[in-house]
Amino acid sequence: MRFALLITFLFLLSACATTGDPVGQADSASSSGDYAAAPSAAADMAVDQEPPELPERAFPDESVYPLLVAEFALRRREYDLALNTYMQQAEELQDAGVAAHTARLAQFMRRDPAAIRATELWVRLEPENLEARLTLANLLARTGRPGQALTHMEAILRAGGLANFTSLVRGFNSMDPSAQRVLLQRVETLLAEFPDNTQLRLCSVLMLESIGQQEEALAELQPIFDNDPHQVQAVVMDAKLRLDLGRRERAFERVTAALDKQPENTRLRLQYARLLTQTDMAEAERQFQILLDAAPEDPDLLFSMALIQREMNDLESARESLERLLSLNARTDEAHYYLGKTAEDQQRLDDAIMHYMEVQPGRDFGTANDRLAQLMLAAGRSAELGVYFDALRASYPNLAEQLYALEVEKLMGGQHLAEASAVVDRALSEYPESVSLRYSRSIVAERLDNLAEAEADLRRILANDPDNSTALNALGYLLANRTERYAEAEELIARALEINPEEPAILDSWGWVKYRLGEYDEALDYLQRAYRAFPDPEVAAHLGEVLWVMGRDEAAVAIWDQALSTSPEHAILLETIQRLGVDLADR
Fold first, then answer.
1. 300 Rama class: left (phi>0) / alpha (psi -120 to 50) / beta
2. Domains, the chain
3. pTM higher than 0.70
4. Is the pLDDT of residue 289 over 80?
5. How far is CA 419 from CA 25, 226, 407, 452, in A?
6. CB 118 within 8 A of CB 96
7. 523, 517, 513: which is closest to 552 by C-alpha?
8. DSSP 94
9. Tens digit of pLDDT for each residue in 76-86?
10. Phi, psi angle pair for 140, to nearest 5°
11. Do 279 and 307 touch, CB atoms closer than 8 A?
12. How is residue 33 annotated by DSSP?
């Protein structure tokens, strides 16, 4: 069978298709003309039109059926089957057209590994094809392989094409310092050869900024300004670098000059407005208003304006902006979350709860429900909160375990210990293997003075995971703090410390058990280390107690005062000071 006959058949097949599929719309035949069916072009033509002239060439009979399978799969939106079949045929036929077709399909499906594999074949078969090179360079840059991407960008540049060199910075930031230096040197070497390439120079600027060389980056911008004083990316970078260097008085000179020349440049104005949020919220608001006047229903601009208005404590204006977002049905979860925060700020607590309830699973879901729970418990609505969490778990069964954990945590924080115990018992009946829930139950039991149950839950965790440093530490601390089984506690905490030697909670526990054993010097050393790493009020209580018992009263009081300044109602801290009979008011 001949290639032209197969393409004619696929052309007629495609011409009958009316799916308007995005894969077809995005696709086009490659420059090679080989094996790429170009279904979208055919779909837009009349059935009785003649197919385009195609070169006739020998076609392997064994490839006819797989290519038809792939084409039918594409038309049925069975994209996985289509992609796998095209990939196999691209590699078997070693044909650039099929490789290009496969690469485009993989990109549409957002399958980066497959897209890279197909595009690498395409480049190998057509090394002079700039589209192939650019596609591969962009894929490699996006997936964190800037060194490989630069190789292809260099080839594009030498062939007279345009490459997005600034995309290399994404992967550059995650490289180790030695690899960063090597890549930066490659960019600078290329820049010496192509000094007028703006994208390449901006790449150098961004890399210098990334490694903390702001002065060098600022100097690197000057050749760009010599050619184009108002180049958008350059003037924005100039302002950003000056802000980083603390030179605020002249930070925006180039930006404002560029805006005077290009007042309709919304991209530049948006960048300017965002930078202004670091220095001048009122001017930032003015710039966002100019942008909104031109695009009053732009949800991103509305959201940014709402955040600025909140920052300026203009809560009514923020509320109006966020409600406009809801009316546009845009960024609704964020709008409800910040409407909840705004309502809290305005002491409209019922409204805050209502808005928090509307936030769906996503970035703000956990925080919204955390705040909602605190508000409802503070209002004495714990029973209603339980009904709400039950409804959430029914709506989002995949999040049920995490929602149980959040509910228990909030009930404990509100000192609703009996209710927390009932909820965590029910949770463990549904998720008996949940380590986090069992750990939570041990905390609830300890606070209810049910030490045997607390110990049992922690030992069950350790039976399944003997090296669980969190459980080892928790059990060791429980025994050191609530019993006189100090030797056993010491052994457990020592094991936790061996596993995680720098964890502040374990350092605190070790210091505490040493204090209970009367080894004050070692206790002080470890508690000081814990407090330096994590100045928590409970650690402050322990450290202050050891200092007090050692006769270092002033140091103890200083630690407690510092902790009380941020946590004036911390129960353990207050209990410690009271138990030791310390009157801070007299000191």
1. alpha
2. 1-126 (no CATH), 466-534 (1.25.40.10), 540-587 (no CATH)
3. yes
4. yes
5. 58, 70, 10, 19
6. no
7. 523
8. T
9. 899 999 899 99
10. -65, -40
11. no
12. -
